[in-house]
Amino acid sequence: MRTLLSALLLLCLSAPLAAGSWPQWRGPNRDGVAPDSPPLVRLGADAALAPAWVSEPLPSEFDGGWGCPIIAGDRVYLYLHSRKRKADVKLPPPKYPWMPIEKSGMTPQEYQEYEVKRRDEDEERAKAEVFTETLYCLDATTGKTLWSKPRPSVYSRFVQSSTPVLDDGRIVVQGAGRMVRCMDATTGDLFWETRVPGEYRDEIFPSSFAVAEGVAVALVGHLVGLDMKTGDVLWQGDKSATRGSYSSPVVWMHQGKPLIIANVAGQFTACFEPRTGHELWRVRSMAGSMSTPVITGDRLITYGPSRRSGLRAFELTREGARELWAYNGMQDQGSSPVVVAGHVYAQGERRLACLDANTGEEKWAAQLTQRSPQFTSLIAADGKVLYACEGLLWFAADATGFRQIADVKLDEQGVIATEATHRNRLKIDEITDENEAEKHYRNKVDRHGPVPCSTPAIADGRLYVRLKKGLACYVLTQ
Predict the structure, then answer these.
(1) In this structure, are residues 42 and 444 in contact, taking their beta carbons and an 8 Å threshold?
(2) Given a cut of 70, is residue 1 above it in pLDDT?
(3) What residues contact residue 220 under an 8 Å CB cut-off, 6+ apart?
(4) DSSP H or E segment with residue 12
(5) Quick one: which H or E segment has residue 426?
(6) At what angle do helices 434-444 and 419-426 cross, to 10 degrees?
(7) Which tens digit of pLDDT belongs to each residue from 411-423?
(8) Residue 197 contacts by C-beta under 8 Å, 6 or more apart in sequence?
(9) Is the Cβ–Cβ distance between 40 and 383 less than 8 Å?
(10) pLDDT tens profile 245-284
(11) In this structure, are residues 417 and 379 in contact, taking their beta carbons and an 8 Å threshold?
(12) Rounded distance between C-alpha atoms, residue 104 and residue 96, angstroms
């Protein structure tokens, strides 16, 4: 096994790096698909793959946010919003710790009152911490940090989780406190920073900017458009009708002209002109406030947080959107589907499903083995779909049936292999105490998967995954 891992690592480190691009949330076309991907290797049942590299330790999850990496050629960028306790301050345990409503034993009204007290307490406790936003630039070949640009930030209820967008040598990212920054992709130097008007307390705004006609558009409490060159606020959508802060807008190319499609308040999806913010139409799509819409040609796919919402498809024109079908077999709070070769692939409620994009007909459904899969979005390359939650699940983009390619876990070194391979390598079966055996496995494998809610990026056969100890790169080509 050591020989195999060493050989794989040597192969990864020596593989040439082709120019690739995953320059924004959900890739080149904001649809989760890596176009023109080279053929990807298929891991055998007993194979293990070491990372080409793992970056320096980086803030993770609740101490760094859930932002996703972006890739441009030989560089990888990652934005993190971190918090660090002041050295001379000690805090007692919180009186109102966060807890999900389903485990609180409270009525909805009691839980709402509890949440007010929790937010008040969190805001007060945050005075004992320092908040920083940092843009990291890494060498895509080695994982070495080329530079990092930390800047002072403010408290948000959860650390801010926006994914940057790279356009024409400029990186734009939404930070905490309604602050938007534009930085030079080569040096990280600041071009401009703009605070979007509006009240702010502790809200989190993870919506990631889309760029069209020189305008950066995102939900910053409501939909706004900023000039990419100057940072000027060119327009603001109606603060009630375009309310939102999680879902990210996408660009629809219609007759050679870009238009913005965004999920907004009241489970509507609306279409806007990027330069003016003029709303062309809106439709009651039942879309979730966290899921990102998917555009495939002149077809819109939305996903909602309940089975009543489900997956829906619409035919688009400049004048409006006509619903084509609805699929009510699954739901997810924030996951976004992916469309490959005329079929929609989605996950929700511990299930995967494949639907005909034209009719909504279910082609197949399969059960997931993950304990609590949700939020993370699907991506696709080389006719394969990847879901990263607790581990990495690859399956074929094949409408004839579910064909699993690999279901792998990650150990403390970032090595990916099947659970059976990890257990064999760790000699779990030789540990006589069953509880100690499972504890050892959890410590070495179960606790080292991808950062929850952070979707991987893929470009030129290289997969970039945020782990709890840093960013890892895997070479998936021969």
Answers:
(1) no
(2) no
(3) 174, 178, 180, 196, 198, 205, 207, 245
(4) helix 2-14
(5) helix 419-426
(6) 110
(7) 999 999 999 999 9
(8) 178, 233, 236
(9) no
(10) 999 999 999 999 999 999 999 999 999 999 999 999 999 9
(11) no
(12) 11
pLDDT (tens digit, 9 = 90+) per residue, 147-201?
999 999 999 988 999 999 999 999 999 999 999 999 999 999 999 999 999 999 8
Structure tokens belonging to residue 237: 């959508």
Token pair 């999806």 is at which residue?
269
Q: Measure the CA–CA gap between 22 and 146, rounded to whole angstroms.
A: 19
Look at residue 45 in the predicted model and tell me its pLDDT: 66
Q: 379-381 and 33-34: which strand pairing? A: parallel
Structure tokens at 236: 């603001």
The vertex-53 CA angle with 49 and 55, nearest 5°, equals 135
Q: For the ranges 4-13, 247-256, 419-428, which has the lowest average pLDDT?
A: 4-13
**Is the predicted pLDDT of residue 12 greater than 50, yes or no?**
no
Nearest CA-CA partner of 260 in 305, 225, 299: 225
H-type helices in 100-225, by residue range? 101-104, 108-125
User: What is the CA angle 467-471-477, rounded to 5?
Assistant: 100
The one-letter amino acid code at 212 reads: A
Whole-angstrom Cα distance, residue 444 to residue 426? 8
R_g (Cα) of the chain, nearest Å: 22
How far from chain centre, in Å, is Cα 13? 26
> Considering all CA atoms of the chain, what is the largest pairwise distance in Å, rounded to the nearest integer?
68
